Amino acid sequence: MPRNHPRLSRYATYIVALAAGALLWQAVASQTNPAFLASFTATMGAIYDFIITGTLFRVLSSSLLVFFTGLGAAIVFGIGVGLLLARVRLLRIGLESYIMVLYATPMVALIPFIMSMMGFGFAPKALVVFLFAFFSILYNTIEGARSLKPEMLEVARSFRSGEWGVWRDVLIPYTLPYAMTGVRQGIGRGLVGLVAGEFFLSGTGIGLLIMQSERDFDVPGLYGSILIITILGVLLMSIGRMLENRFAAWRGLNR
Amino acid sequence: MSAPELSLAPARARGWRAWIGADAAARIAAGVAIFLVWEVSVRLWAPAFVARPSRIIAVMPATLADPALWHAAGATLGAVLQGLAIAIVLGTTIGLAIGRVPVMERFLQLYVSGLFAMPMVAILPLLTIYFGYTGQARLATVVFAAVFAIIINVSDGARAVPPEYIEVSRSFRGSGWSRLFDVVLPSSVPYLLAGLKLAAGRALIGAVIAEFYASIPGLGFYILYNTRTFKHSEAFVAVAMLAILGVLLELLLSKGTKKLLPWYRRDEARD
């Protein structure tokens, strides 16, 4: 199959790059103080330990539960409110600039307030993930709403489309691709929110694993847990990119 | 011919002005509604120390007169700007290398996109091991948060240089350096600005998170300290400053792109 060749050579490149990186890492680490830089093999050993002791599974399931609760709520409310604002023009005009300000505000700044009002536990952390992701999704959905031409609604109306018809055939197909860009951004931001929540609210999940490794001066464990969150980030981001590309096809069709 | 034009022009102007009026009214009404809902719900359901608009306004003069707030804002802004400057130099260099040198691309692409996808908070404990609980750890966090967005966008830009430009430069026997500085770099500038817009937001978040984690003096620490002593309204003035900083950076860069490169429309950065 000649069509498989580019993909095959891409994977080969990845493997070579990873192997070269690992070798370089090992070589540099052997010349460096192990209190600063754990070697590649020591890091892999730490990850292996996390896996066989069940720590990895426990930590990831706790973190992912927080993450998907917050992200799920952000997707539902972000797209829901976004669509509503797409339909009610005056409401959109009124709220737009405030949403833009909140989108540009670093939401981390609210963590101390959340801590002193809601304390520790599951809900405040899910709220942090929600806040980090929500405004990206809402902002992008509104961006889609703004690109919706009023003539399209008028055409739908003149063909006697009901309210449900307008939503199903015009509003949702038109704004959803933009919303998906927001969802991808929201995944990235939400992940920052997850780790920030686990650092600053109450230590659980992967955030606690990272902090504990630092406090115990367990440098291989620290590198291992950071590598784990990096891999998680790459996986989640590629899911986000897949979603975005899947819906971007609509955008092309509708233009 | 001129009669319809004359009658059209004022009608359009009137319509236009009417829109502005309605829009402004909607914006003001929405703002008032937001603050009212906030004020009333805090009064009804939240403990007395929770920030609400009337209290924030009441404490604002005293808080703004407090030099500690301005020191904190200066420290945070200084770290963000310094970090962004370092990230621009580093990111442009690495980005151009990835975009123009195939070996670099093959080796580094994977690592750059991996580190870009990683939540930057996670690296904080590592940076405090290297730099201690100091301002340098914050600077390193800012650079780390910002640099990958710039690398990715600059390498996209360097890759997108039209091959004809390179050919023209070659046929005039331009040197490699001239190709880099006169052709590749200028045509990557719009991408650099798009990446910088993204990087600025991430840098601000990075600075605040580092201040929380390592108790470094700055706006983030100011907020943390004041909420811990139940001075929520004072802390909220600092949150408002952060919001203004975030909006200003965003506006400055998007207006800057339009002003410097009016022909260029690239709305979406790789993020």
What report would you give on this structure?
The complex is a heterodimer of chains A (255) and B (271). Chain A is mainly α and 255 residues long. Chain A folds into 2 domains: 1-31; 38-254, MetI-like (MetI-like fold, Orthogonal Bundle), CATH 1.10.3720.10. Helices cover 85% and strands 0% of the residues of chain A. Chain A contains 10 helices and no strands. Chain A is globular and about 75 Å long. Chain B is mainly α. Chain B folds into 2 domains: 1-46; 53-260, MetI-like (MetI-like fold). Chain B has 10 helices and no strands. Chain B has helices spanning 2-45, 53-65, 67-100, 102-117, 124-131, 135-159, 163-171, 176-214, 219-228, 232-260. Chain B is globular. The relative contact order of chain B is 0.12. The model of chain B is unreliable at 1-13 (pLDDT under 50). Chains A and B meet through helix 1, helix 4, helix 5, helix 8 and helix 9 of A and helix 1, helix 4, helix 5, helix 8 and helix 9 of B.
Structure characteristics:
heterodimer; A: 255 residues; mainly alpha; MetI-like fold; B: mainly alpha
CATH architecture of the largest domain in chain B: Orthogonal Bundle
Strand content of chain A: under 5%
CATH superfamily of the largest domain in chain B: MetI-like
Overall structural class of chain B, as computed from helix and strand content, comes to: mainly alpha
Q: How many runs of DSSP E, i.e. beta strands of chain A?
A: 0
Q: By helix and strand content of chain A, what is the structural category? A: mainly alpha
Order of helices and strands of chain A: HHHHHHHHHH
Helix count of chain A equals 10
Question: Between the first and last Cα atoms of chain B, what is the distance in angstroms?
Answer: 52 Å
Count of helix runs of chain B: 10
CATH fold-level label of the largest domain in chain B: MetI-like fold
- Domain count of chain B: 2
Count of strand segments of chain B: 0
Helix content of chain A: over 70%
Radius of gyration of chain A: 23 Å
Radius of gyration of chain B equals 24 Å
The CATH homology group name of the largest domain in chain A: MetI-like
Mean pLDDT of chain A: 86
